[in-house]
Specification:
Radius of gyration: 20 Å
CATH topology of the largest domain: Rossmann fold
CATH architecture of the largest domain: 3-Layer(aba) Sandwich
Number of strands: 11
Shape: globular
Largest sheet: 6 strands, parallel
Structural class: alpha/beta
Helix content: 25-40%
Strand content: 5-15%
CATH class of the largest domain: Alpha Beta
Distance between the termini: 40 Å
Number of domains: 2
Order of helices and strands: EHEHEHHEEHHEHHHEHEHEHEE
């Protein structure tokens, strides 16, 4: 059994699922999740989250209390014995050392509990084919969303994600994550356009569409996908994956939109500085084939 601790929004949960899925395939075992964070998180300074992976055809089930206790509630005596006699340890916990990528994690044994964000494709790129299947929608788009889907399938479609939301509304998030500048987006668009044979169809996805309409001025027409909110926002991630090219924000949400893009000739532009401070090593968040500016 592999157990992943889930926290954060949809994009973060997808990272946590992806590494767990890879290890479960290595050990030919089941993948389960611990959602205790959502049930007991009383931190009023962070954005309230909930389990969101059920929008996809994921291969994961919830771990019960008895299963979780084998990892999280060992007796003091048991912990002491395992410290001095490691061969007695049958259930393991791995805490992420944060960035950068840690290859030793992929050597984890069966019956491991994973606690971290795991934001690097190197943790799961070996099972890309399985993840492309797992991260398909249970409920396909309908109505106006279906029309947006067709727009995104055009050969010249460029997805642009402008993340604001809690990056702006919560001071702690602003201080930690920061925001991508308009200059970043304009440079990214020009870079992609310079490599295209036909004029682009710019499709903007954002959690703050009114702000985008007022402030985003790329010098060419663009379309705002503004219909999908709340639980329907997963469609925006799906639509981003359908576009030919992607400009991502410093956000795991658009990261996955670009990573799930299956066009062999795709151009993905991502911000070089992923966090507000350059003291955090984010050098391996973006895949090597992406362009960082």
């Amino acid at each position: 059994m592999i157990v992943v601790k889930l926290y954060g929004g949809l994009g973060n949960q997808m990272f946590q699922y992806a590494i767990g899925r890879h290890l479960s395939l290595i050990h030919n075992t089941v993948l389960k999740y611990d959602d205790g964070f959502f049930q007991f998180n009383n931190d009023t300074t962070s954005t309230r989250r909930e389990f969101e992976l059920n929008v996809f055809n994921t291969n994961i089930t919830k771990a019960n209390d008895q299963e979780l206790n084998r990892y999280l509630n060992k007796s003091r005596l048991r912990k002491r014995l395992e410290r001095f006699l490691p061969f007695l340890e049958t259930h393991h916990i791995i805490h992420e050392k944060f960035h950068p990528f840690d290859p030793d994690v992929l050597l984890a044994k069966n019956n491991t509990y994973l606690n971290g964000y795991w934001q690097s494709e190197k943790y799961f790129t070996a099972c890309r084919a399985e993840l492309l299947k797992d991260f398909t929608l249970k409920q396909p788009p309908v109505g106006i969303s279906k029309a947006i889907e067709e727009r995104c399938k055009k050969n010249n479609a460029v997805a642009i994600h402008i993340r604001r939301g809690d990056y702006v509304s919560r001071a702690s998030n602003t201080e930690y994550h920061g925001l991508c500048s308009m200059e970043y987006y304009y440079q990214a668009i020009q870079l992609i356009v310079s490599k295209m044979q036909t004029p682009p169809e710019l499709i903007v996805f954002s959690d703050d569409v009114p702000w985008v309409k007022e402030n985003f001025k790329p010098g060419m027409t663009f379309y705002c996908a503004e219909e999908n909110k709340g639980q329907q926002s997963v469609y925006d991630l799906y639509f981003m994956s359908l576009c030919r090219h992607n400009v991502v924000a410093n956000s795991s949400f658009s990261w996955w939109g670009a990573w799930l893009n299956t066009h062999d000739d795709k151009i993905v532009v991502a911000p070089k500085q992923w966090y507000a401070t350059d003291k955090i090593d984010s050098s391996q968040i973006a895949p090597e084939t992406w362009i960082r500016i």
